[in-house]
Design goal:
The complex is a heterodimer of chains A (354) and B (242).
Chain A: E1 5-9, H1 10-20, E2 25-28, H2 35-44, E3 51-54, H3 58-70, E4 75-79, H4 81-97, E5 101-107, H5 123-127, E6 138-140, H6 145-162, E7 165-171, H7 172-176, E8 178-182, H8 186-189, E9 210-211, H9 220-238, E10 242-245, E11 252-255, H10 258-273, E12 278-283, E13 285-287, H11 292-295, E14 303-308, H12 314-322, E15 328-332, H13 341-353
Parallel strand pairs in A: 2-3, 2-4, 4-5, 5-7, 6-7, 11-12, 11-14, 14-15
Antiparallel strand pairs in A: 1-8, 6-13, 10-12
Chain B: H1 24-38, E1 44-47, E2 63-65, H2 72-82, E3 87-93, H3 94-100, H4 102-110, E4 116-121, E5 124-125, E6 131-132, H5 151-154, H6 160-165, E7 170-177, H7 181-199, E8 204-210, H8 214-217, H9 221-235, E9 239-240
Parallel strand pairs in B: 1-2, 1-3, 3-4, 4-8, 7-8
Antiparallel strand pairs in B: 5-6, 7-9
Chain lengths: 354, 242
């Protein structure tokens, strides 16, 4: 069969990718700029024998994901920044109860109600835990519509393998823009699912299963926390993902993720064509942050420019990864503003000639 | 010789952590008995609340999950939708179901989710030290209404069961108490009905149980039962609501 490319918006590609990855349950609540995702689920989930619920609130939606996940099925919700803040309670409970699940955040401008323009201002919230307690979620940042689709398979596999919530961190621009998407073949999709002996299915032929994060016995909560930290250490070791371009002889490396990486790629390619020794590191996992991409490149002669649609969030992780051994500059805008190519180039030139 | 009385299979043989005279022990047992009687222990998925019954899964011997405070019916909704052949119930207190979880309660009921809800109304927040609950009676003294609930600023006792009963998709609502063996038998019947309804796919069924909290009512267990009978049932009349 000939390769079939379908023109889709990022929001739709995420929805379709999730369904093809074996999504059984979706609950969502209206919020711009991710409504196409919920509408796509409403159109397609029931028709394919799966469950779609428009929840009464973001709180209900994430707690429905909690419930569905507790039975062992693949469950997901999506929202945008203010809605994701509301979901933090449920995400913390999922982390504490060791429940897998996928949460999509198509970020918009904040703080507060903000506006509906694209933003990357929820990086801290996504990568540092977000809700209460000592936990992490794996955070994946797509930078194209194709990657929105592809990443859904990975996200559910990671969630199931490590029993952690996984967040897809996109933004309003990525959600709205349309690009051709190549679907996986059916055989590539079918993957053996992880066994879930902990799931609530009714206790026929086994002892009763209990899903809980409340641990009052002396030392029990510390044990859970140790188990979580061991899981997070394993994830940090094995699951760092990033893309790099022209880094080996670079004098300046641009670091950007998501839609800003898309802009940065164009700049880096065109400047390289003119002979400028410039490179790019694009973190794909924001947590675990791809520290390994920076380890061999910690030197005072190599300069970094971090570009974000925020006033400086990921830049802190870049500095930590570099252990302050390289100079790190930052350029970012938020609140509806998007860093423009010519502004970024100005900052790059300042570093090259500075 | 016939066996007239036995420990329910669905109830673990553990000692109670509830206060003397608390109603949760009786209510837990009623649930366990109903589950045994209907032969559905291996199909049950229970959702425990936040509140005094937060550790309900330490007593019941079937699959159970916790839920964040107030979110039990959102959790239960999803469980039932993805596993319609299981029997799913929530067990929630008044603060959980009628204050922080009102939204989840109203909307699960309005969607007509085929669920069983066991609602324990003891007119206070027990777990946190006896604060005013949505169901606290007018004039009732609690940790946060030291001079009694003032309806002018703190509102009236919330009759969530009557509210829920207004919704077209709700099929069964009954209020019962535990004040004497006769009333416990009525409660037992109501709990059975609420589970049977789910098995028969009738739809959303809720049993409100007026339950004593001697510790935070500052009364003896017997005086607490008397208070339910003489005072609480005036605000929350017993019987079938829908």
């Amino acid at each position: 069969m000939a390769e079939k490319r379908i023109l889709m918006a990022g929001n739709e590609a995420i929805a379709e990718g999730a369904i093809q990855a074996g999504l059984d349950f979706y609950a969502g609540y209206p919020i711009t700029p991710q409504n196409e995702l919920t509408a796509y689920m409403a159109e397609h989930m029931q028709a394919r024998g799966k469950v779609f619920i428009q929840a009464e609130s973001e709180l209900a939606a994430i707690n429905m994901v909690f419930g569905a996940s507790a039975t062992g099925v693949r469950a997901m919700t999506s929202s945008s920044s203010p809605g994701i803040s509301l979901k933090q309670e449920g995400i913390s409970y999922m982390a504490g109860c060791r429940l897998p699940g996928v949460i999509v955040n198509m970020m918009r401008g904040g703080p507060g109600l903000g506006n509906i323009s694209p933003s990357q201002s929820d990086y801290f919230q996504a990568t540092k835990g977000g809700g209460h307690g000592d936990y992490r979620t794996i955070v994946l940042a797509p930078h194209s519509v194709q990657e929105c689709y592809d990443m859904m398979f990975d996200s559910f596999d990671l969630a199931d393998a490590y029993r952690v919530p996984v967040m897809i961190l996109g933004d309003g621009m990525l959600g709205q823009m349309m690009e051709p998407v190549l679907f996986k073949t059916k055989t590539a999709v079918r993957k053996p699912l992880v066994e879930k002996p902990w799931a609530l299915t009714g206790c026929a032929g086994r002892q009763a299963n209990i899903i809980r994060s409340l641990l009052l016995k002396d030392g029990a909560l510390e044990e859970l926390n140790k188990e979580l930290q061991a899981t997070y250490a394993k994830i940090q070791k094995k699951e760092q993902r990033w893309e790099e371009m022209f880094v080996d002889d670079a004098q300046v490396i641009v670091v950007a993720y998501g839609i800003m990486a898309r802009v940065a790629k164009n700049i880096v390619s065109s400047m390289r064509a003119k002979g400028v020794r410039i490179g790019l590191i694009r973190p794909i996992t924001l947590w675990p942050f791809p520290v390994d991409a920076f380890i061999s490149r910690r030197k005072s002669s190599l300069k970094y420019l971090v570009v974000e649609m925020s006033y400086g969030q990921m830049v802190e992780d870049v500095k930590l990864a570099l252990e302050c051994k390289s100079p790190v500059a930052f350029f970012g805008k938020a609140g509806g503003a998007v860093p423009e190519e010519k502004e970024i180039i100005k900052h790059i030139k300042a570093l090259l000639h500075g | 010789m016939d066996k007239l009385f036995e420990h329910p299979r669905s109830l673990r043989k553990v000692s109670t952590h509830y206060c003397a005279g608390c109603g949760h022990g009786i209510a837990h047992r009623l649930v366990a008995q109903a589950v045994d009687e209907l032969g559905i222990r291996e199909k049950i998925i229970a959702v425990a609340p936040v509140g005094c019954a937060v550790l309900a899964y330490d007593y019941w011997d079937f699959d159970c999950t916790e839920a964040a405070h107030g979110r039990a019916l959102a959790v239960a909704t999803a469980i039932k939708r993805v596993r319609p052949d299981n029997i799913v119930f929530t067990y929630q207190g008044d603060g959980d179901l009628a204050a922080i979880g009102t939204n989840e309660t109203i909307h699960a009921a309005n969607r007509g989710e085929n669920l069983t809800v066991i609602f324990i109304n003891n007119a206070v927040y027990g777990m946190t030290g006896g604060q005013m609950a949505p169901t606290t009676l007018a004039g009732q003294k609690t940790a946060t209404t030291p001079r009694g609930r003032d309806v002018a600023t703190q509102g009236y006792p919330l009759k969530i069961s009557e509210l829920v009963a207004q919704l077209p998709a709700v099929k069964y609502v009954e209020r019962v108490s535990l004040i004497n063996p006769g009333e416990v038998m009525k409660a037992r019947k109501a709990v059975l009905t609420a589970f049977r309804n789910q098995i028969d796919k009738v739809g959303f069924s809720l049993v409100e149980i007026l339950s004593p909290c001697p510790t935070y009512w500052g009364k003896s267990p017997q005086a607490s039962m008397d208070w339910i009978k003489d005072t609480m049932t005036k605000e929350f009349p017993l019987g079938r609501i829908k």
